[in-house]
Design a protein that fits this description.
about 240 residues, single chain, Purple Acid Phosphatase, chain A, domain 2, alpha/beta, globular, 6-stranded mixed beta sheet, 5-stranded mixed beta sheet
Length: about 240
């Protein structure tokens, strides 16, 4: 079985289209999404429509919770501007789809899907200590599951009790060990932040029990042009250039 995992599309249609084209040649049996389909970039309705049409099992990210009014407080202005922009574009049907999404999902009774972490849907797992704590939470609360897929940080990573793989800037295979627990971030489709501006996703192949990470080039200039035409913040466009 080949399970493709995508995350943090962030309304970047150019990146999503490139990833979909790449996926079409990978013979994935299923695709799942870890949330933040919307936010930041300029094509939220098109990206939501794509996942709805493909019937991709999806969970909420913090940007979905923001648009539903479930997150407030200290949010950067450019983020709120993008949320307000998104609210104007999504249809009633698309909003209902977002409302229907869970905050986490146990997929196929084997894999835990979260946006932030098993402890908190908005937690950023940015350090080995945080990853270690999240792994312990997975063990105690979701016993029997061996892999937790998470997003939110926009950086691909593989973490277990004796392994940390990061800085995955090119296509890469990571072999897994049976009966080990793993935290796996596929990276971001639409707004990478790991110093590489290529879209990122991963396929878990159970035949060789390996993770196959892919970095996919896309039309960055086209995505930046859409951001400018939408009147969104220049700094959002700049992040796409440098992948930071």
């Amino acid at each position: 079985m080949r399970l493709a995992v995508i995350a943090d599309i962030h309304a970047n249609l150019e990146a999503l289209s490139a990833v979909q084209s790449h996926l079409d040649g990978q013979h994935a049996d299923q695709v799942v999404c870890l949330g933040d389909v919307i936010g930041y970039n300029a094509s939220p309705a098109e990206c939501v429509a794509h996942l709805m049409h493909k019937k991709v099992p999806t969970i909420r990210g913090n940007h979905e919770r923001m648009i539903l009014g479930k997150i407030g407080g200290d949010v950067r202005q450019e983020t709120m501007d993008a949320i307000e922009f998104t609210q104007e574009l999504l249809t009633v049907e698309q909003m209902k789809w977002i409302e229907s999404l869970p905050d986490h999902r146990i997929h196929m009774q084997e894999y835990l899907l979260v946006h932030g972490s098993p402890r908190d849907p908005d937690e950023y797992l940015t350090t080995p200590d945080k990853l270690k704590t999240a792994l312990a939470k997975m063990r105690t609360t979701f016993g029997g599951l061996e892999i937790c897929f998470f997003g939110h940080t926009h950086s691909p990573v593989v973490f277990s009790k004796d392994e940390l793989v990061e800085k995955i800037h090119e296509d890469r295979q990571v072999l897994l060990k049976r009966r080990h627990l793993y935290m796996v971030n596929p990276g971001s489709v639409g707004q990478p932040r790991d110093g590489c501006n290529k879209a990122s996703y991963v396929i878990l192949d159970t035949s060789d029990y390996a993770l196959h990470f892919f970095r996919v080039p896309y039309d960055v200039d086209g995505a930046k042009r859409r951001i400018k035409e939408a009147g969104l913040a220049d700094k959002i466009a700049a992040r796409l250039t440098f992948g930071k």
